[in-house]
Design brief:
The complex is a heterodimer.
Chain A lengths: L3 E3 L4 E4 L4 E7 L6 E7 L5 E6 L5 E3 L2 E6 L4 E6 L8 E8 L7 E3 L3 E6 L1
Parallel strand pairs in A: 2-11
Antiparallel strand pairs in A: 1-3, 3-8, 4-5, 4-9, 6-7, 7-8, 9-10, 9-11
Chain B lengths: L3 E3 L3 E4 L5 E7 L6 E7 L3 E8 L6 E2 L6 E7 L2 E6 L8 E8 L5 E3 L3 E5 L1
Parallel strand pairs in B: 2-11
Antiparallel strand pairs in B: 1-3, 3-8, 4-5, 4-9, 5-6, 7-8, 9-10, 9-11
The chains are: A mainly beta, B mainly beta.
């Protein structure tokens, strides 16, 4: 299976900062894209889907660049509670309903 | 809300034992998945199932088997547990748009 690559971090940012994560994927036929959040010793939870036109959910903005095969997540006005690992996730057309998970980018928001 | 439950949060087994991990979902989803997650390796797909009695191998099926006798239940079986199977095991169910919802995980230690 093809790969999804992320900068592992950690990203250490102060409260209120804006932080951006990127990931790249290798299969140009990929069709569905997501960001998941995982807290320490907990299960991954769906943060948001990523649409071709870009989408926003409160302080979170996700963008997709199909030509360059990368996905981004922007977090504005960071909160302490945003500290977690963020997983970039892609569905590859040739893998049916299975998802490919990046290894995650660690974010620590400090007071 | 989607609810995915796993039979145990923590489990300690001895080498050579047969281990059963159970996962139950209440959303009538057809697709279910078993992953393991290890530090530095991310989530790796063990097996998945598209329907009752159907199963497909993921990336690391060796040493594992699965059973899906009912739509809502997907079991992972370690035929003869080994120390290298010490890991966090995560079950997930698949939604309409390829997104997945995870159970809380089972942290298995094989001694």
């Amino acid at each position: 299976r093809k790969e999804v690559e992320q900068d592992p971090g950690p990203f250490n940012v102060p409260e209120g900062a804006t932080v951006a994560f990127n990931c790249t994927y290798s299969n140009s036929a990929s069709q569905s894209f997501f960001w998941y959040r995982q807290d320490c010793r907990k299960e991954p939870k769906l943060l948001m889907s990523v649409y071709s036109s870009g989408n926003e959910d409160g302080r979170f903005t996700a963008q997709l660049n199909r030509a360059s095969q990368y996905i981004s997540l922007l977090i504005r006005d960071s909160k302490l509670s945003d500290s977690a690992t963020y997983l970039c996730v892609v569905n590859m057309r040739d893998s049916g309903y299975a998802l490919n998970f990046g290894k995650g980018t660690s974010l620590l928001v400090t007071p | 809300d989607v609810k995915v439950t796993q039979s145990s949060r923590y489990l300690v087994k001895r080498t050579g034992e047969k281990v059963f991990l159970e996962c139950v979902q209440d959303m009538d989803h057809e697709n279910m998945f078993w992953y393991r997650q290890d530090p530095g390796l991310g989530l790796r797909l063990i097996y998945f199932s598209y329907d009752v009695k159907m199963k497909e191998k993921g990336d690391i099926p060796e040493g594992y088997s699965v059973s899906r006798e009912k739509k809502e239940r997907f079991s992972l079986i370690l035929e003869s547990a080994s120390t290298n199977q010490t890991s966090m095991y995560l079950c997930a169910t698949g939604g309409t748009y390829y997104e997945q919802y995870f159970g809380p995980g089972t942290r298995l230690t094989v001694t």
